[in-house]
Amino acid sequence: MNKIDETYRWYPIYTLPRAEKKTHNLLEKKGINTYLPLYKTLKQWSDRRKWVEEVLFKSYLFVYISHKEYDLVIQSYGVVRFIHFSGKAAFIPDKQIEILKNYLSGEQIPELTFEDLAAGQKVKIISGKLKGYDAELVSWQQQQRLVLRIDALGQSLLLRISAADVEVVY
Questions:
Q1: Which one of 16, 40, 45, 165 counts the least CB within 10 Å of its CB?
Q2: Residue 40 CB-density burial (10 A; 0-12 exposed, 13-18 middle, 19+ buried)
Q3: Which residues does the UniProt record annotate as the domain NusG-like N-terminal (predicted)?
Q4: What is the pLDDT of residues 80-121, one digit of tens each?
Q5: What is the tens place of the pLDDT at every residue in 24-62?
Q6: How far is CA 77 from CA 12, 33, 142, in A?
C-alpha cells in the first residue's frame, strides 16, 4: 500500500502571467492556505501618483498543502505547474516563509555601511526581523547590499540592512 505524505509544507507554484492575485484569491476560496508576497510602490501616471501593491515574485505563489491537496491546486485556474527539483515538487521551509513575511511587513529598510567585506562573502543576520537568516553580500554600488536567497525558488531578494545587524560567517 502506498502511503501519501500528509505533512503540510509551503510549495511554490508557477502561475499564468499577471494572474497571481486572481489565482491566490481562487485558491483561498477553495480553502487552500496561500501566501502571495506583495510590496508597496509609488506608481506615476501622467495625471496622478498612487501607492499600489506589486507582486514580489512575478508569476509565483506559495501554497501550504500536503500531497493530498496537490491535485486540487494543480487543477485550479491560473496554476501552471508546481516548481520541481530532481523530479519532486520543491518546498520552502516554514522558517523562510516566516522571514519573508516579517521582512515585507516592515515599513523601512535600514541603510548598510560595511567597509571590510567583499562581494560574495557570507553573513548571518543577528538582529531585526530577519534574525537567524544567512545571506550573501552582492555589490558595492552606492551602498552595500545583501542578497537573501530562497533556494527552492532560485530567486533572490536584494535589500539594504544595517551593518550592526550582521556578522561574518567563516
A1: 45
A2: exposed
A3: 9-100
A4: 999 998 888 999 999 889 888 888 887 544 333 444 556 677
A5: 999 999 999 999 999 888 888 888 888 888 898 899 999
A6: 16, 16, 43
Sequence-ordered list of residues with C-beta below 8 angstroms from that of 44, at least 6 positions apart, any chain: none
CA atoms of 68 and 38, how far apart (whole Å): 28
Distance CA 45, CA 43 (A): 7
- The residue count for the chain: 170
Question: Do residues 87 and 47 make contact, with C-beta atoms less than 8 angstroms apart?
Answer: no
How many angstroms separate the CA atoms of 9 and 71, rounded?
A: 15
Per-residue pLDDT tens over the stretch 123-164? 777 777 777 777 777 665 445 456 655 555 666 666 666 666
Q: Any residues with CB less than 8 A from the CB of 127 and at least 6 apart, and which?
A: 164, 165
pTM flag (> 0.90) = no
